[in-house]
Amino acid sequence: MLKNIAITSADIVDRVKLSAKIPEIIEEILTEKIIVEAFAATGMEVDTAELQKEANRFRLAHQLDTAEDTWKWLKKYQLSFDDFERIIYTKVITRQLADSLFANKVERYFFERQLDYSGVVLYEIILQDEDLALELFYAISENEVCFHDVAREYIQDRELRRLRGYRGVANRKDLKPEISAVVFAAKPPQVLKPIKTSSGIHLILVEEIIQAELDEQISSKILSDLFSRWLETQKKSLRAGGNIQLCLSNN
């Protein structure tokens, strides 16, 4: 039985390779290098106060309430304080670079695609019998039966049946194209005529359509999406030009 085990850097690299994690780590390294180089090219500088704010956010997110908690966390992940500063610096320059590239494009992007960010509150019953779906639709429309009573009777999934088919708030991209087109044209509250898809026959109650507003959450999402696309374009360009060299020893 082993009494002492020495784990080396080579062991760790070997384990990463055997765990098939090399590609995702390469992506992370590539992302950081692109960001660092692009940020340097802008001539912008990092404000010390911003670094401190980001460090405070990081500690809060990881529940590092004291200096001792921070040191324990660094030790757990084999990180030095310089490594910690690099993590914080990278987060700050990433945000600053994204802002400099796309902050002035967010509003236009949103208004060109406002419908994509609208939401709908809906209830749904999926049936396999089209004739039954039509029969139930007309019965609900003529107030012979309540949609929620139909959901309770015909939904097979126990949890969804308990919720009477409630699907929460869905965005256009969350729905099948043939469903979203009809749903977002509805006049709530409205039960839609059954819609046939590959999943079955959908009987849907549209309770509310939530018109999107450009709030902080949506702005952040749009900025993040635009920046992510930019990063992917940079990576694609590097790969196409054969400008990525992977220097790993096989020994």
Account of the 3D structure:
By secondary structure, this protein is an alpha+beta fold. The protein folds into two domains: 9-108 and 218-240, no CATH class; 119-210, Roll (Chitinase A, domain 3), CATH 3.10.50.40. Helix content is 58%, strand content 12%. It contains twelve helices and five strands. It has helices at 9-18, 22-42, 48-61, 67-76, 81-102, 106-112, 114-117, 130-141, 147-154, 158-162, 177-183, 216-240; strands at residues 119-127, 166-171, 190-191, 195-197, 200-210. Strands 1, 2, 3, 4 and 5 form a five-stranded antiparallel β-sheet that branches. A hairpin with a 2-residue loop joins β4 (195-197) and β5. α2 (22-42) packs across α5 and α5 (81-102) packs across α12 (216-240). The protein starts with 8 loop residues before the first helix and ends in an 11-residue tail after the last helix. The mean pLDDT is 92.
**How is the main sheet built?**
5 strands, antiparallel
> What order do the helices and strands follow?
HHHHHHHEHHHEHEEEH
In terms of DSSP E residues, the strand content is 5-15%
- Name the structural class: alpha+beta
Query: CA-to-CA gap between the ends?
Result: 28 Å
Helix content: 55-70%
Q: What's this model, at a glance?
A:
The chain is an alpha+beta fold. It has twelve helices and five strands. It has helices at residues 9-18, 22-42, 48-61, 67-76, 81-102, 106-112, 114-117, 130-141, 147-154, 158-162, 177-183, 216-240, and strands at residues 119-127, 166-171, 190-191, 195-197, 200-210.
